[in-house]
Hints:
The chain is α/β, with parallel strands linked by helices. The protein folds into two domains: 7-60 and 323-419, Aspartate Aminotransferase, domain 1 (Alpha-Beta Complex); 74-320, Aspartate Aminotransferase, domain 2 (3-Layer(aba) Sandwich), CATH 3.40.640.
Amino acid sequence: MSKKLLANSKALLQRAQAVIPGGVNSPVRAFKSVGGDPIFFKKGAGAYICDVDDNAYIDYVASWGPLILGHNNPKVIAAIQDAVNEGLTFGAPTPIEVTLAETITKLMPSIEMVRMTSSGTEATMSALRLARGYTGKSKILKFDSCYHGHSDALLVKAGSGLLTLGIAACAGVTDSIAQNTLVAAYNDLSACQQIFEQHGADIAAIIVEPIAANNNVILPAPGFLQGLRDLCDHYQAVLIFDEVITGFRVALGGAQALYDIPADLTCLGKIIGGGMPVGAFGGRREIMQQLAPLGPVYQAGTLSGNPVAMTAGFATLQELQKSGVYEQLQQSTATLLTNLKDCANNYKIDMDVRHVGSLFGITFLDDPEQKLFKRWFHAMLDNGVYLAPSAFEAGFVSTMHDSNVLQKTTEAFDRSLAML
């Protein structure tokens, strides 16, 4: 397939760069790590998205995860349209936020109460404040190269976007904030134990992605998550699972249901907004009741729980509760990765693939500077497949990635490897 014509995208980028830093509203979109210019999109349907130059692509970014039902799912869109007809936002309680909260607490038993936010960053930031308020302690433990949003305390060795852009540390994060963020290597339980032996009396919380989805999908080692649970129990710290990506993506009850390990607090996002901006954090009742207006920990948001986002999320969760949905997602993702792995083997390319449910990671081995990944990314674009423009980001399969789409993806992959 010939190289895509992107004249309209290039013109939009020039306009954007004059008024938006880097021409993008989120750094990874800039294509800096893969080279070239970002593509501007105008519509999506099912497993496909279409750019402003009318090029179509099979989409494995899925707006970075929330579109588990594909683009423009008719039932979600119809529900949103009905909600919009009643008003966009009120800054006041609405029935649908109660319904969505009830649904979340039913599907994730460790969440006894939940507070809505407008983003995953707000959710993790608020969960940490709550953990500190509840325990009276100041330090937190996070993991190297795990991303939990862009609040100051969590940008210490944050991986994901920072890794993509080659930023070692974020300017503007003061030493006084960073010194309260302790860092261990993901899956290194021994290091966590040593940190708690030294600082346990002052550690309020561990925050962890139960599956490290922001570092191209790293699975937890056997016993790692249970070890974190045990440490928090022993030292009376709060275990926070950041399931902004994995929540309702890898299973109906999230990663904590897969591994049967309850968190004290859980952060959610992505799917519970059905593609609209949303986040949430929730957990044990005694902890959540420390939030204002019941308790002394203040957290607020003018657009939190807005009815359009709540409606989109509830409609999505209704579809995900139907029989066979997760089995289909699991099978589609397994089939895709098996096909891609076989194809890479045919070309004698050493490639590792991993997936949990419909969340997947692909890594070219012996490619430390991502030179092969960069060429492959653009070859896949030319062959009509849109992937995350970063070697450190995950991929996502939706219910609309049927056998025909998977076959077209495999054929595009084969052509891409031949081009390389």
